[in-house]
Write a structure and sequence with these properties.
Layout (H helix, E strand, L loop, with lengths): L1 E10 L2 E11 L4 E5 L6 H8 L7 E6 L2 E2 L4 H6 L1 E4 L11 H11 L4 H14 L15 H13 L5 E5 L7 H14 L4 E5 L3 H7 L2 E6 L2 E6 L1 H8 L2 E9 L2 H9 L4 E6 L7 E9 L5 H10 L4 E7 L3 H8 L7 H35 L1
Parallel strand pairs: 3-8, 3-9, 6-7, 7-8
Antiparallel strand pairs: 1-2, 1-4, 4-5, 9-10, 11-13, 11-14, 12-13
Helix pairs in contact: 3-4
The protein binds adenosine-5'-triphosphate.
Length: about 350
């Protein structure tokens, strides 16, 4: 559905996007993450044909965005960081205008706009001037214009910026609903949002792809260590002494808010080891009953910070480099296979 190969964007001498390659299948939601200035908006602007690339190719639904811009753009709905709204139009006038630009058939237009206004919950303000709307409503109108024509691919740059918590939940639900029939790319600074709704997460830093995987795999493989949350009755020192000798434990983190004789802590171990039995017997020997024991994963926040802060020696960075090399090799094999297929198709044609 979306295939990006070796994308490079230079602004003068400044390298904003540096050899970015990725693919996205139909119906997937891709979360695009990166610190400020990482190159997210630049990439999205190239994908939508808004700006050109210095090198590389982008194919949307089989159409090259540079060679067949009209065909490719027909497949895309875009909500940029600053929604392109005409402030002096009413909401309905504006969506009518967008539908005309997107060549929506006259006899389908009214029904489609009414449906999209219901989906984005802006029917109540359909006859209001856009300049009189609150920021949250303007954002919804921006989302509505991206959906007009129901394009196969919807690209959303920070779609929940400026919305209140209730509206954020509604927009997230809408994005999930849309993903049943559309492919979606969204950028966001809200990491919990990305891990809650995306099938795939791509983290970029300084224009380069750092890692790309499912939220679960990121936590399990990139985190590189497993956590066990424990609530234990006893003295902190006794619990610490009991657990310190267990083979496989790499770190113990005691929470500060332990009270009522209950000690709360996380015990981290290497990915290969299972420390649960040893923890049970050690605490039993120390006569410290376990009130709660469950597995925890490294949070996306921790992964994001470690991967984007040039911490070359951290386990997270080492694991991501390993996974990155593996994925890169896999992608190159897929591209090579694709190129071979195209070559043989070409030969057959000739
Ligand atoms: N038109 C431009 N001319 C020159 N440099 C630019 C231009 N647009 C972006 N840049 C630079 O390219 C880099 C990537 O910018 P981009 O806006 O794509 O980052 P971003 O990841 O979207 O950041 P943010 O999260 O802050 O929106 C930054 O260093 C930025 O200063």
């Amino acid at each position: 559905m979306i295939e990006v190969k070796h994308l490079v964007k230079k602004y003068g001498e400044h390298l904003a996007v540096d050899d970015l390659s990725f693919t996205l299948e139909k119906g997937q939601i891709l979360g695009f993450l990166g610190p400020n200035g990482a190159g997210k908006s630049t990439t999205m602007n190239i994908l939508t044909g808004y700006i050109s690339a210095t090198e590389g190719t982008v194919s949307i639904n089989g159409h090259d965005i540079f060679d067949e811009p009209e065909e490719a753009k027909k497949c895309i709905g875009y909500l940029p960081e600053l929604p392109p709204l005409y402030q002096d139009m009413t909401v309905r006038e504006y969506l009518n205008f967008v539908a005309d630009i997107k060549f929506v058939k006259r006899n389908e237009k009214r029904k489609m706009i009414d449906r999209i206004m219901r989906m984005t919950k802006i029917t109540d303000v359909s006859e209001r001037l856009i300049k009189q709307l609150s920021k949250g409503y303007k954002q919804r109108v921006g989302l509505a214009q991206a959906i007009v024509g129901f394009p196969e691919v919807i690209i959303l740059d920070e779609p929940t910026v400026g919305l209140d918590p209730m509206q954020i939940i509604e927009i997230r639900d809408l994005i999930k609903e849309l993903s049943k029939s559309h492919t979606i790319i969204l950028s966001s600074h809200i990491l919990s949002e990305v891990s809650a709704i995306c099938d795939k997460i791509m983290i970029i830093n300084k224009g380069r792809l750092v890692v790309s995987d499912s939220p679960d795999n990121l936590s399990q493989h990139i985190g590189g260590s497993k956590g066990l949350h424990l609530e234990v009755k006893g003295e902190t020192e006794t619990v610490k002494k009991a657990l310190e000798g267990i083979e496989g434990i790499t770190k113990l983190e005691f929470e500060k808010n332990s009270k009522g004789g209950i000690v709360k802590l996380s015990a981290y171990s290497t990915e290969e080891s299972d420390i649960r039995e040893a923890v049970f017997y050690a605490l039993s020997d120390a006569r410290c009953p376990i009130y709660d024991m469950h597995s925890t994963k490294m949070s996306l926040e921790s992964i994001f910070l470690e991967l984007t802060q040039d911490n070359k020696n951290s386990n997270t960075t080492k694991n991501s480099n390993r996974l990155f090399r593996k994925n890169k090799q896999k992608n190159e094999e897929v591209y090579a296979a694709g190129a071979n297929n195209q070559e043989s198709e070409h030969k057959e044609e000739n």
